[in-house]
Each structure stands twice: as structure tokens, then as C-alpha cells.
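User: Hi! I'm working on a homework problem where we have to compare a predicted structure to a textbook description. Could you give me the structure for the chain below?
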Amino acid sequence: MLRIIVRNIVSNWCGFIVQAAVVFFLTPFVLRSLGDTRYGIWALVTGLTGYYGLLDLGFRSGITQYLTRHLATRDFIQLNCVAGTAVAALSVCGVLIMFIAGVLSWLAPILFIIPPDSLAETRWCIVIIGASSAISFAFFTYSAVFAATQRYDAANAIGIGVRLLSAAATVGSLRAGYGLVGLCALNAGCEILGYVLRSFAACRILPELKISLRAASMQYLWTIAGFGLWTAVVAGAIQFKSYASSLIIGLFLPIAALAPFSLVGGILGYLDLALGQMATVFFPAATHLDALGQREGLRTMYLKGSKMLFFFAVSAGVIGAIWAADFFRLWVGPRLVEGGEYPSVAVLFWLLIGASCITTGQRIGYQILLATRSIRIFSLLVSLEATATVALCLCLIRPYGLVGVCIAALVPAIVFQGIAHPWVLCRLLGIPSSSYFREVLLRPSVVGVLQAGIFAAIHDAAPMASNWISLVGYGLLAGTISLLLIIFIGLHGDERRRLIYAPLTRAARQPGIAKTPRSSEAACAPENGAVLGCGNAYPPKSIPSGRCENAPDGSI
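Assistant: Happy to help. Predicted C-alpha cells:
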């Protein structure tokens, strides 16, 4: 199982890197080619796809849950009933999306301020993107197969190919002068091609999958929806907590105050996304263990997985905190770093990185709560945290401004993510609190303290990072030191042998010999011991690169 999880994490990171690279390099070209007005229309239209996704009310999460569960028990009759019900229900959602897209295209000049000469383009783009989103709903069941069989590598391979093809189509269409409508049509075509490829690949990975609308039934519909509606509550609470702070800042402070807060939030969003790729892949493995009643496997997964995630989160947090001022000075200039009317972005980053590290460290716990269908207690915890964050923000924003908003995010994160979530999971899995502290928190805390001391000394003794090359050099040095500290101080002796020495020994003994990939049957077999991932919330699309398909499970 460890090999499968590592493979899926690496493939998710590859997908994330490709996505980030495409965004970074393509955005300036698209902006120059379309101009400010048409680029704004493109951002508006593609942004609607995120709202279309809310129409399933968590149904896609329920599909992944029950496909994974029935696959673990090899009950293909119920698996195909779930699949047939899913296709029927999501096809209805697709029809609803098409209707909404048609209404939005008609109401576009009323809802949005659009120049008259761009109105026809806007309407066509809304319809085209709406059609692409509708088709994605109809094909989603095939995408869920990749998560159920733990084949994130195959899903990411297709996703990367489609993303690169979409990027090439974007460049070609704009250079050929096809304009905004042509851009939408070509990118929608690439996305539809991706859905078709996933459907063929899913049938090859899981040949027992037989989708028939005659297998659909209300019984399975309510079973899936019952789980999915609670996940929708979880997703809604997370979104509410994420965006309420910006709304409150806009209500109580000048709009200019959003600039430093949004800069910090954007950077932490990408950090959270990068680390979230590790946690997402644990969902199907945890569901598999729960379906087979392997409680000890779930305990081991939670303790070992959370420990490794804390290592990465603490290391990234310490490195980011030490060099935050240098990074922001190079990125946005010294004005926002030195402060003035509003606190320095570095100060805001120091406060928010603490909340981000604590939250990221609980991502494995998210997957286990979802996999064990403890969704009601999960939704209660995130709803209480969101409510506490907003209430504290309202109390602190007037006396303390942006610093108060950051404190309002940090304190509930400590209480709920740092204390309440681990307590609930330890009770659920039968883990003593002392074991959680010893196995999960102790060594990452020691490593974090050592990192803080070493990196602070390097930062004070070395010249200030005056350009990107020197900053990257400091980052590579800090990353190397962090890795060595994790290996030789953070890991136990048996963990070093199993995770480091044994793979290196095997690689040295078999140079150039690639292992034969396991079949899908083996990947799902009980002996493997086998993520509605809460990390699939991808950054808003700023380029026509299509939907991010790194997480094929429709997870939060």
C-alpha cells in the first residue's frame, strides 16, 4: 500500500507542477492577446464553472465513497448499481447546467457590465463553457473510478496531456486570430477529449464496470445523496471560512486593505494545495481499510501519515516564515513589506502560516473521517470552526485591523484543528492521546525548533536575498537541511530503513530495470491494505487551461 500511496502523491505533484507552470507562463500571453476587456470576460466565464460544481450538492463525493467501498469488498453488482445511478443523476445535473448557462447568456447584459461589441462573444462563451461543464458531469463516474482503484497516476497522466494540449490550443487559436469564441471552443474540445479518454481508461482499469441506466434506483440515489449532502455542508463551511474574512475586511476597512491580505492568502493557498496533494490519495486507501474492517490499518495510516504531513508542513512553514520578507520584497516591492498604513505582508504571513500548518497537518484525518463515513461529526467540527473564525474576526477587526483578522484565523485553527480534530479521531480509532502526541507531534516539533534556530542564524549571517537566484539558493539550502533533519532526527531507525535505505538498496541492485506495473486487480486487492480530498480546491482559473484533473474523485 505504501508504494501505491507514494506513487499517487508523486503523480499528483507532477500534475500540480504542470498546472502551475502553465498558469505562470501562459497568463501573460493570454492577457496580451485578448486585451483587458476580453480577458476579463474569459475570467468571468471560466469562473462560472466553479459555481456549476456546487449543483451536485456533494453527490460526486458520495459516488467516490461507495464505488471505493464496493470495490474493496468485490461486490460488483452493487458497484454497477451505484455507477448506473450516478450517471443518471449527474446527467440530470448536466441538463440543469445547460439550462442555467442558457439563462445566464440571455441575462448577461443585465447581470454584468459588458461592452456592446463584446456581448455576442460573451453569450457564446457562456454557452460553450456551460456545455463543457454539463458533459463533465455526465462523465464523472468514469473519473471516480481512478480514485476508487487508486490509479491517480493514470488520471494525472491524462490530465497533464489534456492540459498541455489545451495550452497549445490556446496559443494556436490566439495567434490564428480565432478570438474569444474560438478559444472557448478549442479548450472545451480538449476537455471533452479528456473525458472520453478517461472513460476508455476507466473501463480498462476496471473491466468489471458495466454502466447501465437500467441499474439506477432510488435506493442507491438516496444512499449516495445522504453522504454527499453532508460533504456539501463540509465544503460550504470551508468555503465560508475562507472567503468570509475578505468580505469582512471589505465591509469594515478600506478596499485597499484587501491587497496585502489577498497576497498572503494567495501564496498560502498554493502551499496548501501543494501539500494537499499528499493527503488526497489517502481517501480510497482509508475507505478500502474501513470496508474490510481493518481498524489497525486505519490507526497506522492516521499516525504515520499525519506525522509525515506535519514534517512537510512545519518545514515549509519555518522556511517561509524566515524568508517571507525577502520573498515579498522581490515579488511585490518593498512598500508592502515595510508596512505603513497597513501591517507588513511578512507579519500577516507569520500569523497565517501558523494556522495553515496546523490545518494542513490534519488533512489525513479529514480523509479518515470521510472514509469511515463519520461525516456528521466532521461537518459539525468545520461548521463550528467557521462560525468561531467569523465571530472572532468581527470582534477583532475594529481594534486590531488586519492583524486581528489573522488572529481570528489562528486561534480557531489551534482549538479545532490542533485539539478537537485529533481528539475526535483518537476516540474514533481507539488511539490514546499520549500515543498521538508521541507518534505525531513530538518529532516534527523538535525538528521544527532546530530548523527555526538554524535558518534564523543563516538568515542573519548571510547577505540579504537581493535577487531571485540568491533566494532560490537559500531555499534549496534550507530544503536540504530540512530533509537531513527529518531523515536523521525525525524518523525512527526502522522508518529510515524502510523508507530510505531499502528503496535505495533495491535501486542500486537493479539499475535500469523498471518494475512491471500492477494490474488494476492487484491495485485493489485486499492484501494492499487498501481521499474525498479536502485539498481539491484549486486556485481560480486565470488561463484557459481547463479544469484541474489532479484529483479525479470530485473531492472537497
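For your comparison, note the following. Residues 375-429 form the longest helix (55 residues). The CA atoms of residues 155 and 531 lie 14 Å apart. Good luck with the assignment!
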